[in-house]
Amino acid sequence: MPGCWERIAQAAGKNRSRLCIGLDVDPDRFPEILKREKDPVLAFNRRVVDSTLDLVCCYKPNIAFYESLGGPGLEALRKTILHIAGRVPVILDCKRGDIGSTARMYAQAAFEHFGADAVTVSPYLGFDSVEPFLEYEDRGVFLLCLTSNPGSADFQLVPESQPLYERVASAARRWDEGRGRLGLVVGATHPDKIGRLREIAGELPFLLPGIGAQGGSLEAVAAAEIARADRIGVVVNASRSVIYAGSGPDFENDVRKAAIEHRNRIEFPEAKQ
Amino acid sequence: MPGCWERIAQAAGKNRSRLCIGLDVDPDRFPEILKREKDPVLAFNRRVVDSTLDLVCCYKPNIAFYESLGGPGLEALRKTILHIAGRVPVILDCKRGDIGSTARMYAQAAFEHFGADAVTVSPYLGFDSVEPFLEYEDRGVFLLCLTSNPGSADFQLVPESQPLYERVASAARRWDEGRGRLGLVVGATHPDKIGRLREIAGELPFLLPGIGAQGGSLEAVAAAEIARADRIGVVVNASRSVIYAGSGPDFENDVRKAAIEHRNRIEFPEAKQ
């Protein structure tokens, strides 16, 4: 079985797309027609996925939205991943981070219970908190590096001489030696820092959130790319701007249109073909 | 209703205990007798809680252990918290951290769905990732500061001039101004750093893991205390060394003995009475 980054690159090449759709479900924003469904969350995700499967390189559900709905929400998440499984990879955005013995439990939950292809992990607790996720050879791990929110300035950008996010990037490159399954979360809201980050990080793939609702830039995407056909330099996530594009009974047509627009805006690099 | 830190101080005063028992369930380590139960996790927790309720100031389930068991595990967690509710406070150890709009979902899950009194939160994403948890006036938030694991050296202790964990402590004190509901997670494995941290952090309560299996020190506990009767300076967590103390059909007697030993080792400070 190819590694996770290769599976994402394959889906990207086939669909000529670096777009990742974030499945951040919010039942209050669901189209009216879904309110009759027994499991509206699963029904919504199935319709979004079925209408966009040929337009993306992966999907990224954020587990917080499912956790806030309790047990049925998490069960809908598991079934959503099962619905996508084997077609394109799924990144479970869970930002977990705990001491080694506990991180092992989180890895088991993400990879075995939910069946995710990749996860997002927080670096604050250091290597032993990341290692249990790296032990799964056919899965991927995106380490939070430079996030897209205002609070990224509080710790990630200090001190100026060697900011924390650069330390995280260089540690990640070191930790991934001989593995090829660690990547970085890098917010598209920091385009001026991405060239330097690419230098530090070598060929680690970047997951870029913040292109849609958060106002991130497309230059960031170009700066993050790498010149390899078998691996992907950058996966660009859009959530709300795609999944809530429609509200009528055929909302998936609007979702599909929004996905096409996003995919085209972040053109797939010709040189890689 | 008194704030969360006051509720913990009340339970501590009443039980003359700064002990927090970590409910980190692992069905493989459960006493044989529980294997017949329909819901072994809930049965185990109920027996541990019922035999130690007068010996602790709070309980701390780590959600990772429940997540790794899937839906039934998380439902057992919810019922465990419901079983304890209103008697002593429950800290949900979940180390969450995400951009503001997503952190709101995590806060909803922890405080509304699970009904926790307090949570642990990761600082990496900065203030907007912590704020949604602080908006619940009657709940508490322990921010990860200096953790007990080997990986704490990777980012928290650098650079030497003003290490990240000190920045986190001083930000936490600032963020808590006028609120009184933010605290810090400080590993007992770093006793030499706790005096200085107490200076930086003012009266923020410290949650100290790492006393049992991780080999932390009791000096750390003394250095973390504050001189107030209505608030608590330090809550000391022990998990495996208490909850797996017994394996026979009456395992709760051994659990109770271990809890008494731990409570007595971290003597409740007389001056506070």
Name the pair of protein chains with the most residues at their interface, and give those residue counts: A-B, 54 and 54 residues
The main β sheet of chain A shows up as: 8 strands, parallel
CATH topology of chain A: TIM Barrel
Assembly state: homodimer
**CATH homologous superfamily assignment of chain A:** Aldolase class I
**In sequence order, what are the helices and strands of chain A, one letter per element?**
HEHEHHEHEHEHHEHEHEHH
Span between N and C termini of chain A? Answer: 22 Å
**What characteristic shape of chain A results from the CA principal axes?**
globular
Number of strands of chain A: 8
Radius of gyration of chain A: 18 Å
Descriptive keywords:
homodimer; alpha/beta; TIM Barrel
Task: Write the topology of this structure.
The structure is a homodimer of 273-residue chains.
Chain A: H1 4-15, E1 19-22, H2 40-50, E2 58-60, H3 63-67, H4 70-84, E3 91-96, H5 100-113, E4 118-121, H6 127-134, E5 140-146, H7 152-155, H8 164-175, E6 182-186, H9 194-201, E7 206-208, H10 219-224, E8 234-238, H11 240-243, H12 251-265
Parallel strand pairs in A: 1-2, 1-8, 3-4, 4-5, 5-6, 6-7, 7-8
Helix pairs in contact in A: 2-4, 5-6
Overview in brief:
The structure is a homodimer of 273-residue chains. The first copy, chain A, is α/β, with parallel strands linked by helices.
Describe this structure in words.
The structure is a homodimer of 273-residue chains. Chain A is an alpha/beta fold and 273 residues long. The first copy, chain A, has a single domain, classed as TIM Barrel. In chain A, strands 2-1-8-7-6-5-4-3 form an 8-stranded parallel sheet. In chain A, helix 2 links the parallel strand 1 and strand 2. The radius of gyration of chain A is 18 Å and the shape is globular. The mean pLDDT of chain A is 93.
